[in-house]
Amino acid sequence: MSEILDGKAFAAEVRAKVAEQVARLKDAHGITPGLAVVLVGDDPASQVYVRSKGKMTKEVGMSSFEHRLAEDTSEADLLALVGQLNEDPEVHGILVQLPLPAHVDADAVINAIAPEKDVDGFHISNVGLLGTGQKAMVPCTPLGCLMMLRAHHGSLSGLDAVVIGRSNIVGKPMASLLLGESCTVTIAHSRTKDLPEVVRRADIVVAAVGRPQMVPGGWIKEGATVIDVGINRVPGEGDKTRLVGDVDFASAAERAGAITPVPGGVGPMTIACLLANTLTACCRASGLPEPE
Ligand code: NDP
């Protein structure tokens, strides 16, 4: 049976460390890091995410600024708000909750965020900086995955890693980060030939697909580390639903050396990393040493 990588406990440690550093910033420099979250429309999942981001931002002692806009908000109005937040000295991090309504060009909005305040790491400048191995704002979900991998393995150098999924928010930045750690990285996607064979070679498997339990244990190399990013809601008992990952946890746990559960794995790390990124952005903006 494999080691369960407890993202919930790890995230609590990260948040406690952030809270300690926020308190020190306030005491020593009178600075309070601030995170602005912009939500357009009333997508129920986005509402839940935004609420929990706001709650945790306050819990670590940061200022939380929530901007809830109507579904029919124009792109021009949204860009104006982003411009205002870019100029606001109390705001060190800006997050525009995705997805945005179809009438808004999401790329235009994300790229309007000042790159140094782009705590989601989606601005084209941060994508370029990460891709070229320079100091960037790193997207929160892959950053959380990397933190768990580093904590488990120490050095990742020379390990074979497979990232299943090539999205801009998870798969591609995850692959860049693993390459930065000197892994040999394969990025798999819906057109990959013989995915089971590709996965079988990997010492590290990161699954970010969005298909419930599509990776069976039989694909996993004995002793590999499995990071399951997927969050899929499936029918549960009676009329209830439950969350499962992209990996079939029960069978994969029989073979993996270590594995993240869903829920309680990657998910909690994402918000913890958002707070860590906001702290980093605040330190950079204030000319102070960055948190470790
Ligand atoms: P996307 O839908 O943007 O990307 C999915 C990727 O999976 C695509 O690259 C797609 O390939 C690939 N894919 C689809 N089907 C297959 C297949 N049969 N075999 C191999 N690859 C396949 O999803 P995201 O990256 O945004 O999210 C992935 C999952 O992670 C979702 O479940 C999401 O909910 C979850 N997630 C979790 C977060 C967290 O905090 N834990 C944060 C963000 C996402 P192609 O490009 O060829 O279409």
UniProtKB/TrEMBL annotation:
Residue ranges constituting the Tetrahydrofolate dehydrogenase/cyclohydrolase catalytic domain according to the UniProt record: 5-120
This protein's UniProt keywords: Amino-acid biosynthesis, Histidine biosynthesis, Hydrolase, Methionine biosynthesis, Multifunctional enzyme, NADP, One-carbon metabolism, Oxidoreductase, Purine biosynthesis
Pathway annotation from the record: One-carbon metabolism; tetrahydrofolate interconversion
Top-rank taxon, per record: Bacteria
Annotated binding of NADP(+), by residue: 165-167, 231
Matches recorded under InterPro entries: Aminoacid_DH-like_N_sf, NAD(P)-bd_dom_sf, THF_DH/CycHdrlase, THF_DH/CycHdrlase_cat_dom, THF_DH/CycHdrlase_CS, THF_DH/CycHdrlase_NAD-bd_dom
Keyword Transferase: no
Its EC number(s): 1.5.1.5, 3.5.4.9
Gene Ontology molecular function terms on file: methenyltetrahydrofolate cyclohydrolase activity; methylenetetrahydrofolate dehydrogenase (NADP+) activity
Annotated catalysed reactions: (6R)-5,10-methenyltetrahydrofolate + H2O = (6R)-10-formyltetrahydrofolate + H(+); (6R)-5,10-methylene-5,6,7,8-tetrahydrofolate + NADP(+) = (6R)-5,10-methenyltetrahydrofolate + NADPH
Keyword Hydrolase: yes
Function as written in the Swiss-Prot or TrEMBL entry: Catalyzes the oxidation of 5,10-methylenetetrahydrofolate to 5,10-methenyltetrahydrofolate and then the hydrolysis of 5,10-methenyltetrahydrofolate to 10-formyltetrahydrofolate.
Quaternary structure annotation from Swiss-Prot or TrEMBL: Homodimer.
Similarity comment: Belongs to the tetrahydrofolate dehydrogenase/cyclohydrolase family.
Official protein name in the record: Bifunctional protein FolD
Organism of provenance: Oceanicola granulosus (strain ATCC BAA-861 / DSM 15982 / KCTC 12143 / HTCC2516)
Upper classification of the organism: Bacteria, Pseudomonadati, Pseudomonadota, Alphaproteobacteria, Rhodobacterales
Gene that this sequence comes from: folD
